[in-house]
Amino acid sequence: MIEFFLHGFGCSSQQFQTFWPERSEGPDRFFLNGPEHDPLTSCRRWFEFTSLPETIASGLGGAADNAEKQIKGVLSSSHHAENEDIVLVGHSQGAMVSMELVRRFSLSIAKAYCYAGFLPPEMFAQRQQRQGRSVELNIFSSTADHYVRHDKVLETANCFRAIPGVTVRHHKASVVSHGFSSKWLDASNFILLGDENENG
């Protein structure tokens, strides 16, 4: 198993890495950098910031292509097999890119942990062919997040639930703001939504 971490808008792989201290055991970890320099924050981004769904879809497609290329590059240049189980961890734009990679079924993703991200519903119009692989998708959202609204995340979770082979675990908080912090990693801040209350 191998883990890939995708930071949010205006962050960087180095900054994101500080939330996960070094460890002596466990899967190898790789922290990916967004391909673009953001002039507002002088850090990195996966695609240009926008609120237009069609522009998000376009930028997200290119960003996911870039992330997939980075991941395949790591796999080909290391001791890891091309079909080794992958775990994705992403926040904000990084969560959106991770979700798009899950939707594509083009990598051997076993689990994904997506914090404060969503996909425009238009991106689910084309179904990707699942190649005998199941994915556990953990989605984390907060009603206190004023950038990625909880209802958008609910819509994304429901779209993924309709895809065979994807098991969705949606975790909801009410006290966590959008910026990544240790609060996103504190399980006590979240409740797990089931299928029966996915609209709540």
Overview of the molecule:
Residues 196-200 have low confidence and may be disordered. The protein is globular, with a radius of gyration of 16 Å. α2 crosses α3 (93-104). It has one domain: Rossmann fold (3-Layer(aba) Sandwich), CATH 3.40.50. The strands form two sheets. The chain has a seven-stranded mixed β-sheet with strand order 2-1-5-6-7-8-9. A two-stranded antiparallel ribbon has the order 3-4. It is 26% helix and 24% strand. It has four helices and nine strands, in the order βαβββαβαββαββ. By secondary structure, it is an alpha/beta fold. β1, α1 (13-17) and β2 form a beta-alpha-beta unit. It has helices at 13-17, 53-76, 93-104, 150-161, and strands at 2-6, 28-32, 36-38, 43-45, 86-91, 109-115, 135-142, 166-173, 190-193.
Per DSSP, the total helix count is 4
Share of helix among residues?
Answer: 25-40%
Biggest sheet character: 7 strands, mixed
Q: Calculate Rg over CA atoms.
A: 16 Å
List keywords for this structure.
single chain, 200 residues, alpha/beta, Rossmann fold, seven-stranded mixed beta sheet, two-stranded antiparallel ribbon, 24% strand, globular, disordered C terminus
